[in-house]
Fold this sequence. Notes:
alpha/beta, Alkaline Phosphatase, subunit A, 2,3-Bisphosphoglycerate-independent phosphoglycerate mutase, substrate-binding domain, eight-stranded mixed β-sheet, 18 helices
Amino acid sequence: MCVRPAVLICIDGWGVTSETRGNAIAAAHTPVMTALSKVDGQYAVIRAHGLDVGLPDGNMGNSEVGHLTIGAGRIEYQDLVRINRSIENGTFASAPALVDAFSRAKSGTKRMHFLGLVSDGGVHSHITHLFELLKAAKAAGVEQCFVHFIADGRDTPPSSATTYLQQVLDFTKELQYGTVATVMGRFYAMDRDKRWDRIEKAFRCILCGQGDVIAAGSPVSALEKRYEAGETDEFLKPMIFDRDGIVHTGDTLVCFNFRADRMREIVEAIGIAPPFDTKGYTVRELRLLNVPTDLSVVQFTLYNKAFSKLPVVVPPDSMDMTLAEVVASRNLAQAHVAETEKYAHVTFFFNGGKEAVLPNEDRVMIPSPKHVATYDLAPTMSVAEVADAVCTAIASKKYAFIVCNLAPPDMVGHTGNYKQTVVACEATDTAIGRILDACNASNTTLFITADHGNAEVMLDEQGNPKTSHTTNPVPFIMTGDNRLKFRVTTGGLQDVAPTILRVMGLPVPEQMTGKSMLLE
């Protein structure tokens, strides 16, 4: 079987818009992407948000659903939609994991905790899910309930946590149930790059009562004072508003983020084993911290197969015959390349939410910079090293398919630093140029797309820094043989995999509901 080799670049956070105000991509010098966007028949603009990636209509896309949809070649209703539907049809509170959690709390310490990101960003969590959990816990007869509030500031404006905190306070007051026990920024509680020093601060606040104790005044006022001191939501240092609300031995805790990647570390620390045993603490020191034991920790979705002993409120759907699985089924070699921040996206998510490495699949993880707190301080990140790895893989002629992620536009865009995001986009364009040259030298077809928008909108309507994703479409580019043309100039992320398979000369499985955009 003659297979045409292909490389797919997924740029993170590279949307398409004609608006130039606050557009870091338009401001950047990007000769490669600019030239490719002008090639007749090989440039299209495809949808990457809302229903087209299985999210609620109008919701901005994100890296998880973007890579999942690209790799699966179909639209799968995401966990957010599945959870919302269960709320709408009245089955949410009867999920076995929740029923068991409420029962354990009632028969044990009579204390329930809810931990998660509190916003309406819809990327990692949604505030309405917290409200439903509070109602369900009260209806189940659990005596006490405490909220551990993780502030957003990345998928929402950077100083908007006061709005969401007030909503929670108003809701619990009306419900006459529930207390906000702790508040902290996602910088501490939602790390995904094994920066255990950050997770430790969240851990010690939630479980050991160590943090800034706010003895008087309203929680909202406390946050406003933090804003005045220069802190923003993402970086809010841990605060304790109710000393009795920290997690005690025997308590039950439900994590309500539905997205897995940024919950794995905090759940490992709380629900599996604190990683700090070998990070500078002796067992005796941990005991002196009064770390609670015999906890019942519940995952909202399956955060990690290694956490299989922890109950799951919304178990995963299976997804078969993804792009990677089709390649593997033909005994062809493939490589998945990304830096640490986006490694899960080109492996776990791209492969349909599956951890297992496929036959003949090689995975390459390039370390993301660790010497900086935020990536605007290192705006090129490790994009050059990712390009090195991809070019080496192409030159080896070992692989029929290579997928890589280029992270800087999204990760630097999330900082709100416009100038440094311009630098990130330029570095990304340079990396694309190098990969393009390698593909041309080896008769390999290069495809370029993005998982969602971000860097093209860096200012909100008031002119303030915008750190969240967008609902803009993204590019889909095909390079190489000039005889290869798109039959249409619009589509969705679900159409990427079928198109690539057709160009490679591989069959498109019936499980893929996306359509090839190739003119044949």
